[in-house]
Amino acid sequence: MRRVRLTVTGRVQGVYFRASTEQRARRLGLTGWVRNLPDGSVEVEAQGAEQDVAALIDWCHEGPAYARVDDVDACDIDVTDDRRFEVR
Fold first, then answer.
1. Which residues have a catalytic role annotated?
2. Domains within the chain, CATH numbers bracketed
């Protein structure tokens, strides 16, 4: 089990990034959340099997069609007892 916190920068707000991330995470069976930050970036916490978390990180480097991802900063954090994935 792995949990990560991601900060995604670029043109990632107003381009369906949060909803697309939620859809992708749920398809991968991950728990956690995604939210916009005041500086224009998107923050994601995702937890699940190592390979599924890695797949979400890879996807975040591309994002949805209208996004332009400049960088994805990832760090491992402590596992929690989340039950689902949500947009905040």
1. 18, 36
2. 2-80 (3.30.70.100)
- Residues 20-56 as b/e (b if ≥16 CB within 10 A, e otherwise) read bbbebbeebebbbbbebeeeebbbbbbbbeeebbebb
Please report which helix (H) or strand (E) contains residue 80, including its range: none
- 73-86 tens-digit pLDDT: 999 999 999 899 99
Q: Per the structure block, which two tokens stand in for 8? A: 């995604």
DSSP-derived secondary structure letter, 55: H
Written as six digits, the tokens of 51 are 């390979």
Q: How many residues does the chain have?
A: 88
- Order of strands, sheet of 85-87, starting from the edge strand that comes earlier in the sequence: 68-77, 2-11, 42-48, 31-36, 85-87
pLDDT tens-place string over residues 23-36: 999 999 999 999 99
The sign of the CA dihedral 5, 53, 74, 43 is negative
